[in-house]
Amino acid sequence: MFRRYGPIVRLFALGVTVGTTVLLMGCAPASPQQQSDRERRAATVPVFRLRMMNDLWANTSEEAFLYPGVSVHRPKSKTEDPDTGMATIELTGSQMVAYLQNLDYNAHGGGTAQNQSLSKAVYDTIVPVLDSIQDSPAPGAPAPEIVVSATSGGPTSPPPLIPER
Predict the structure, then answer these.
(1) What value does the mean pLDDT take over residues 23-28?
(2) How far apart are the first and last CA of the chain?
């Protein structure tokens, strides 16, 4: 009874396989050529310190549906200032690599990318810091600090610790 359906089932299975392959190949982001070098540099740094709005971190640290990379749900540390909405996030070098891959996927058109403009703004802020790393930092060297502006996504100075009167 099932013999007469065999060719149809095989044809359907072949179609699903080819369709899935084409879909997954189309999901790869158009990463910049320097991406792997940036990942290598990030891996050499023991700790990075990021300062950004808490909701910006929440939106850019989520991985996209079917994202093939590693999640960064638990940074080394995260402190929030409820008055300003700013968060200070510390990432190890390997966590920064995972975060950079996530930003790259979302910023540069991964198939299921989300928050593309936010991810691109954060990616574009982090990249100059990574590009400036030449050698592994000396032991005890201060962590690179990256401040992401809430308005433009570009680098800014941190807000003053004591309000001006």
Answers:
(1) 48
(2) 87
